[in-house]
């Protein structure tokens, strides 16, 4: 086989281009399956959530801006041919990190940097989203294949691992585990299952599996032809029968596909890994053959269905945040869609922690929370005249420990994504407050509703600073009402089917 030289700059450019590409383009297979899920969804809140994801995806593709504000932790699976030579003084990992750096600092489409260099103590942001998590395998051939993913924290945090006895059911464990995950991984998405090998091998199998082409619609139509396909189809039906639905709102589609990868293992062991892939589903596979950088072909905009013109906003409740009171929230019902206008604050983990520390020290808070609404978001920096970059919600339960503090300061409502703990729901009911959700994966659509943004506290925290947004008709769903009724409990219960 002919020996091939692959240059370092070509690897850097390939990684840069791929990460930019997957930040704003969904894969065609996922779009097709999500569109089919939209058409068959019977739950009104879930139907609306899928519609928002699809429309936001179309807007992201048109404007080439991130479909989700959490632009992910980069993972690369590299398969280097034994007859390929990397012509560079830098290691492959260093070349990949250079590509990540250029992608995330691109002035035309800056991506949010989320990596912290010290995971245990200082946790300071690296500012360029490096380093990537890189796995290298030496294989036959003379090319370099890169499987590149950008995985958000919400779905990554829901990865699970166990070691079952060989006689135990993998399918039962998967279904039981998914019931406990909540909606923080942003369904509807893909579930990857890795079985076998060792503990670390099973996790890698699952993570690679979610990057395989989505073909569940074809499998459903023709039926399974192997044990593996029968396993996948069974889990697809059982998971969707749980009734979790899009964003955990209750519905008929929680996953659009289930992937399985296996590896030989010890006779006494059955390692099993579960890897959720969120609605952003960002991944790419590119191959360098020595002829230059590898680029992906842009999709056709006709691949996106037109959604928002099908959804009337005439009968939706419009809410003026500037005059909102507890009395006005009293008749909001879980599952109801609201259109918010007026001023709201933003804040995430770091801002809440700083507020709590100031309150404990008896210091005056830099911004009053009385009669305000706070949005859990860390937006992307704006470009091209934008008011703010893509600004979808972050997972709310990370702020559960601060609920007493903010509600005690007079906060009326919180906006985020996914479920809250029962203790937090009880506190919301006690204070006659509410919890609302914006759709995870619809960051561009949310940003269109934001007409003004300014930092009002903790500017040093960057994207975690407290902003004040002025919004017009920002769509949200009532997740917990003033009585403590949660749609993340009632929705799945209503749509759960017998198995």
Indicate the CATH architecture of the largest domain: Alpha-Beta Barrel
Helix segment tally: 15
CATH C-level category of the largest domain: Alpha Beta
Classify the secondary structure makeup into a structural class.
Answer: alpha/beta
Strand order of the largest sheet: 12-13-14-15-17
CATH fold-level topology of the largest domain: fumarase
Describe this protein's structure.
With 499 residues, this protein is α/β, with parallel strands linked by helices. It folds into three domains: 1-152 and 283-291 and 300-309, no CATH class; 153-279, 60s Ribosomal Protein L30, Chain: A (2-Layer Sandwich); 312-495, fumarase (Alpha-Beta Barrel), CATH 3.20.130.10. The protein has 15 helices and 17 strands. The chain has helices at residues 8-24, 28-40, 44-63, 92-104, 153-156, 170-181, 199-209, 216-222, 227-240, 326-329, 349-360, 403-408, 422-430, 443-448, 487-495, and strands at 4-7, 73-81, 84-87, 133-139, 144-151, 160-163, 189-197, 255-265, 271-277, 283-288, 317-320, 337-346, 373-375, 413-416, 434-437, 450-457, 466-480. The strands form four sheets. The chain has a five-stranded mixed barrel with strand order 12-13-14-15-17. The protein has a four-stranded mixed beta sheet with strand order 4-2-5-10. Helix 10 (326-329) links the parallel strand 11 and strand 12 (337-346).
